[in-house]
Hints:
Layout: E1 4-8, H1 15-23, E2 41-47, E3 50-56, H2 68-82, E4 85-91, H3 98-110, E5 113-119, H4 123-133, E6 142-143, H5 152-173, E7 195-201, H6 207-215, E8 233-239, E9 242-248, H7 261-276, E10 279-285, H8 292-303, E11 307-313, H9 321-335, E12 344-346, H10 355-369, H11 375-388, E13 401-408, E14 413-418, H12 426-439, E15 448-453, H13 470-482
Parallel strand pairs: 1-3, 1-4, 4-5, 5-6, 7-9, 7-10, 10-11, 11-12, 14-15
Antiparallel strand pairs: 2-3, 8-9, 13-14
Amino acid sequence: MSFTLAIVGRPNVGKSTLFNRLMGKRLALVDDQPGVTRDLREGAARLGDLRFTVIDTAGLEEATDDSLQGRMRRLTERAVDMADACLFLIDGRTGVTPVDEVFAELLRRRGTTVILGVNKAEGRVGESGVLEAYGLGLGEPLALSAEHGEGMAELAVMLAPLIEVAEAASEEAETDVDLDEDEDEGRVITAQKPLQIAIVGRPNAGKSTLINQIVGEERLLTGPEAGITRDSIAVPFTWDGVPMKIFDTAGMRKKARVQEKLEKLSVSDGLRAVKFAEVVVVLLDAAIPFEQQDLRIADLAEREGRAVVLAVNKWDLEEDKQDKLRDLKEAFERLLPQLRGAPLVTVSAKTGRGLDRLHAAILKAHDVWNRRVPTATLNRWLTGMLEAHPPPAPGGRRIKLRYMTQVKTRPPGFVVMCSLPEKLPESYSRYLVNGLRESFDMPGTPIRLHMRSQAAANPYKDRKKSTPSRLSKHVRSGATKKS
């Protein structure tokens, strides 16, 4: 296990900005508004030659009750206990505040290795904050500027001996793992390449609660308030022997209702998680399923070419489960015909019921998403489909479908070489797509079918017109004289 550094401090001192700096890319949401980060975000950081894990945490608050701030503080304290060291940030422009002094004492009592960083220390304004930081009793403060990258070399010098000790300890406890991955077999799920899953849905559908239930610990911040999650948080774990990385996303409301800049950033972050996921779990609320926004989210996942699983949460609150399930299936077939056959499972994020069915549905959807059909099998199938229902002949010209092959997976993509592809109606393409789903057991997964022109080759098309030989001229002239 790699060395882990937790970045802690009160709200709006620049923790997420420093996290993005160490990651080398903009992953955590950053805004002038305090309290943007609420969950723990982990990432593989690099600083010069150093490689380690960094955790971005919520701003430390003095609240200790069950309020949102209190739950955020408990989650941050948990990150402190998980980490090998803490980088305690204060704001150099504001200086040391009473809240900073409280949390400095908290870190001392926990006995964690602490590096004191003074962020926003560029310029003369930040110098006074660095001097004040000596009074916290956490050693020599490190002047930083996460925005401009100042102080990164000094931070690397302080981290190097800590990482060296952690790596030496991990090497002693490390066991050899044999990873037998055959590239010819296609996608193989390993610890290095886990299955990427995104949980999406409307606000307060129970996405974070579901992930906590799957992982088996309070990894993400939850509560009755809608819109708690803001970042797309990646949680790596092994679920029944399968390495996975599951992304918790912010609730997606209708575009007209999204007014605040921060919510727009949260939604765009969730959309990015959908684009990079392999399987998208669209989480519905059993009390109000298939709202207009649910349909838009599911359609988005299908258009992005992701494998889709529909999960209906809060199933433990339903009384007449059989009638409700029948109504759900009927609505699914009617409202989402483009995903007909996709898995529909009922779960309870609160009690954990139905998680085994969800696990099986995710693996099946991923398997179908990666399916490949041999070319010979495809062309035999195409011949049967043409005999059962020949393509139309617009304007009396017959459309010939000559050859078919699969050009890609993830999702399955097929190309049909034919004459007059622009004349082939969309209904006939749907006929072929539905036939592919039924014949090759590919329900629910997006299928891309492309028609390409392949006109019959004319062997005389590009041949130059030959000039008559002298002999042929002589024969023609002789015949003319005799006549």
